[in-house]
Design goal:
It is built from 7 helices and 19 strands. The longest helix is centred in the C-terminal third of the chain and has 22 residues. The chain starts with 5 loop residues before the first strand and ends with a helix. Its cofactor is FAD.
Length: 314
């Protein structure tokens, strides 16, 4: 069956702060962008309750509501926002060939990747049930809500140490749940948490259950050497075992680091492929904040606009 091939100037893959900001800039530049939302429209912020660190919202805002605002703003300037999942790409020549939901084919002159990253979770039922009710994968985003309280964090890498140190500044006590008797973190980060009187490291420990009905009340951990279980009273539970960028479908064309984050030319959103730009958490494993994602979305749209202007006469 011959399907009609659609041609677009700017195709945006993904719909978090990066994708929507790229859409706002591209549509205001008259480029009629088409944006596909992906499997989680609005991205990671849709599973965040209160966002209090995004400029311009003095009273804070709910994550899903904020993403709805971003979407409305993009649509107001003419972005064609569509629900669908990009399932295949071919960036070997221009226009790029992109397949959506295994059935729609789009030829795009430029493509902006803003597919984000997903937090890795422990995979226990109570973690899912209490997500947003005391369970979080971002201490910088949500630590503030637990000011002066006791919390726990799971993880043993640099990010976990960094987040534990951050939490120790605002919480009365931080329990760090570490699976082995050593950490993966760099020595300087390990020293920082070990020398912090507010952080207690629980070695050889794993999470058995997060306790609480409506909100987090505690955590039950077990020692994987002795099998001994114990319960700790906490009101916040943070998971810092890493993020996975949602970039697998681009692997054959776009340069990535070993973790799958897309490499961009420093100071730009350009990838190694002509006319393909990356923004947001798909290419940022350092900051991973809504406001930095939005900033790189702006960069990607401006880079795409300049690319199109330079290639108009070719």
């Amino acid at each position: 069956m011959n399907q009609e091939i659609e041609r677009v100037k700017v195709l945006i893959i993904g719909s978090g702060p990066a994708g929507y900001t790229a859409a706002i800039y591209a549509s205001r530049a008259g480029l009629s962008p088409v944006l596909y939302t992906g499997g989680q429209p609005g991205g990671q912020l849709t599973i965040t309750n209160d966002v209090e660190n995004y400029p311009g919202y003095p009273d804070g805002i709910m994550g899903p509501e904020m993403m709805e605002d971003f979407k409305k703003q993009a649509e107001r300037f003419g972005t064609d926002v569509r629900y669908g999942m990009v399932t295949k790409v071919d960036f070997s020549s221009r226009p790029h060939v992109v397949t959506v939901d295994d059935q729609v084919t789009i030829h795009s002159e430029t493509t902006i990747i803003s597919t984000g990253a997903s937090a890795k979770w422990l995979g226990i039922e109570s973690e899912t049930r209490l997500n947003g009710k005391g369970v979080s994968a971002c201490a910088v985003c949500d630590g503030f809500f637990f000011r002066g309280q006791e919390v726990a964090i799971v993880g043993a890498g640099d990010t976990a140490c960094e987040e534990a140190s951050y939490l120790a500044n605002i919480c009365s006590k931080v329990y760090m749940i570490v699976r082995r008797e050593e950490m993966r973190a760099s020595q300087i980060m390990q020293n920082r948490v070990m020398n912090n009187p507010k952080i207690e490291i629980l070695w050889n420990s794993e999470t058995d259950e997060i306790l609480g009905e409506e909100e987090v009340r505690g955590v039950r951990i077990f020692n994987n050497k002795t099998g001994e279980k114990k319960e700790i009273a906490i009101s916040g539970f943070f998971v810092a075992i890493g993020h996975q960028p949602n970039t697998e479908i681009f692997r054959d064309f776009v340069h990535m680091d070993p973790s799958g984050y897309i490499k961009t030319i420093p100071g730009s959103s350009k990838t190694n492929v002509d006319g393909v730009f990356a923004c947001g958490d798909a290419q940022d494993n350092v900051y991973r904040q809504a406001v930095t994602a939005a900033g790189t979305g702006c960069m990607a749209a401006l880079d795409a606009e300049r690319f199109l202007a330079a290639h108009e006469n070719h």
